[in-house]
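Milestone 3.1: sequence recovery, worked example.
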């Protein structure tokens, strides 16, 4: 196992920690009837905060569960390794090329995250080197088999997926997970883009757990993140970027 990654690159602060503990509680409470073990995090487009949500959710999950794993499944533009100042020389793309998924194989690609705010064990599998066929790799039986094998070793697995609209990669990731969180950036995400992305996920039978609203202005909330379960009301129109503000 590689040396532990360190640092606060995922954006830790007291307010964020509290917000994500609320998110963790809401996810678990909203889905208490069935065990949600593997959670994928997606957004409509890039730069809407999905990787920050994935990283922080993994950290707070590690405060509640003995063994938590965070996997960067964005094989095109990965960023999670930068958040934790971790090596990305090898990772998920390499792991999917292995001939078998024996327990010892995982140790070659797992990095343990060491941080004073993590009370249990948090492990990271970075994306690894960029590959020419990410969609095929993530749609393969091997990816499904990998996640199935990892379920036996971890209590919670967080999958940071790519955005929904530019590429199809998020669909097989979502279908492999028990549930998916959809990230919306307040006053940045366009309503039409969010609706198309959610429709795409639903038509593919991805189980949507709810929305996570990011980048909320501090004067409008004590936290910069909020969660809405999909069986509840959806975010207000005012939270979306106005169409007239769209750049040419």
């Amino acid at each position: 196992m590689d040396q532990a990654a360190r640092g606060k690159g995922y954006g830790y602060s007291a307010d964020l920690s509290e917000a994500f503990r609320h998110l963790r509680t809401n996810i678990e409470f909203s889905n208490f009837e069935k065990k949600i073990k593997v959670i994928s995090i997606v957004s409509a487009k890039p730069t809407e905060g999905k990787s920050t949500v994935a990283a922080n959710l993994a950290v707070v999950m590690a405060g509640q569960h003995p063994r938590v794993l965070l996997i960067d499944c964005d094989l095109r533009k990965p960023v999670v390794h930068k958040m934790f100042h971790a090596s990305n020389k090898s990772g998920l793309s390499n792991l999917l090329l292995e001939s078998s998924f024996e327990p010892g194989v995982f140790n070659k690609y797992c990095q343990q995250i060491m941080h004073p705010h993590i009370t249990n064990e948090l492990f990271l599998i970075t994306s690894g080197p960029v590959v020419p066929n990410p969609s095929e790799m993530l749609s393969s039986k091997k990816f499904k088999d990998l996640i199935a094998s990892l379920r036996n070793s971890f209590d919670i697995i967080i999958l940071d997926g790519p955005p929904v609209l530019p590429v199809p990669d998020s669909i097989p990731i979502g279908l492999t997970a028990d549930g998916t969180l959809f990230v919306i950036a307040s006053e940045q995400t366009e309503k039409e883009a969010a609706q198309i992305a959610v429709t795409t996920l639903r038509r593919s039978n991805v189980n949507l757990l709810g929305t996570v609203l990011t980048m909320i202005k501090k004067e409008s909330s004590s936290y910069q993140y909020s969660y809405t379960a999909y069986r509840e009301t959806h975010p207000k129109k005012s939270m979306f970027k106005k169409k007239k503000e769209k750049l040419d």
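The two ends are 47 Å apart (CA to CA). Residues 242-248 have pLDDT under 50 and may be disordered.
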